[in-house]
Design a protein that fits this description.
Layout lengths: L3 H13 L2 H8 L3 H15 L4 E3 L4 E3 L1 H27 L6 E5 L2 H8 L9 E5 L3 H10 L4 E4 L8 E16 L5 H9 L2 H9 L4 E3 L4 H11 L9 E3 L2 H8 L5 E5 L4 H5 L3 E5 L5 E10 L5 H14 L12
Parallel strand pairs: 3-4, 3-5, 7-8
Antiparallel strand pairs: 1-2, 5-11, 6-9, 6-10, 6-11
Helix pairs in contact: 1-2, 1-3, 1-4, 2-3
């Protein structure tokens, strides 16, 4: 199925002559413009422009297509402007992406008060960066910085990855091995325990294990559940271990349904970044979201003693 945005992008390229100028007019990245054009050319089965070092020159097919769609595109754009003039309550729509846990813990309770429309997605960092670069997202919260030149990154928070366990877990032997810093014995003991992890991301466990023991985990978790929130509910007042970001479990640790088993040595930390396009069309709305996330971020985990 053809995407009408391809025609809009094609029209602007034809009129301004370069991909960079088209990207500026459309408020999307230059790779996003290239993607729209290549998709349209694949659909049409013909090259629509000859690529020159200074300017995109329309081919015969490109000129024919432009002449065929220009009246229709102008009418659609006119209808868009008319609709906007008639809509007194029109609000911009901002598309954001972040982890499900951050949305649930920090943003979810505030969305009904937003003065604009919001579309939220969940996904892994590489896909979020690609969608941001292509113009389908406006703001993401990511631990990964890409190499795209048109994206702007601002450090937000630092999360520490910690080892927790249910409060019914017998950790006396673990505490003794930890006091001796006997890493091989610690690793073997932990291998034999009940483990929880999430269905979509084992990177936290892998990174923690690699930093602590210089290898990837060799065990298979007994319970694979949908989210970190599920892990905390399942482990509370029960047995088992999991590796989670510290900001997600401060409340559960304070209520003593779970225990802090180990903060890791060396500690494993991730920097969270706000990422947006440098030529974003929604600077005020994005600033509004950043302020909400900063204001409502969970208070840092208080210094708690390790398990006894």
């Amino acid at each position: 199925m053809i995407n009408l945005e391809w025609f809009r992008t094609f029209k602007v390229i034809y009129e301004v002559g370069t991909l960079s100028a088209a990207a500026k007019d459309l408020f999307i990245s230059q790779p996003g413009v290239s993607l729209h054009l290549s998709s349209l050319e694949s659909f049409a089965g013909h090259r629509l422009f000859d690529r020159d070092t200074r300017k995109m020159v329309a081919t015969e097919r490109g000129t024919m297509l432009y002449n065929f769609i220009i009246d229709h595109m102008n009418k659609l754009e006119e209808a868009e402007h008319i609709f906007r003039r008639k809509s007194k309550a029109e609000k911009p729509t901002v598309s954001v992406a972040m982890s499900m846990e951050i949305f649930q813990h920090v943003l979810e309770s505030n969305i009904t008060d937003l003065p604009f429309n919001l579309v939220t997605r969940f996904g892994d960092c590489p896909q979020m960066l690609q969608d941001l670069n292509n113009g389908t997202l406006d703001l993401i919260l990511t631990t990964l910085k890409g190499t795209q030149h048109n994206l702007d990154y601002k450090p937000f928070k630092t999360e520490r990855i910690i080892l927790i366990c249910g409060n019914q877990t017998d950790t006396s032997e673990f505490a003794e091995l930890l006091s001796q810093d006997n890493r091989p014995a610690l690793r073997d003991w932990l291998n034999d325990q009940i483990w929880y992890t999430t269905a979509y991301d084992m990177e936290y466990l892998k990174n923690f294990w690699s930093a602590s023991f210089g290898a990837l985990p060799s065990f298979r978790p007994k319970y694979v559940v949908p989210s970190f929130a599920s892990i905390l509910r399942c482990m509370s007042n029960n047995k088992g271990f999991a590796v989670v970001p510290d900001f997600l479990c401060g409340k559960e640790l304070a209520e003593k349904g779970i225990k802090l088993a180990w903060e890791g040595s060396p500690p494993v930390e991730n920097t969270l970044y706000f990422a947006k396009r440098k030529n974003t069309a929604y600077p005020d709305e994005i600033k509004y979201l950043e302020d909400i996330l900063n204001k409502n971020w969970p208070v840092g985990m208080e210094k708690l003693s390790l398990v006894d």
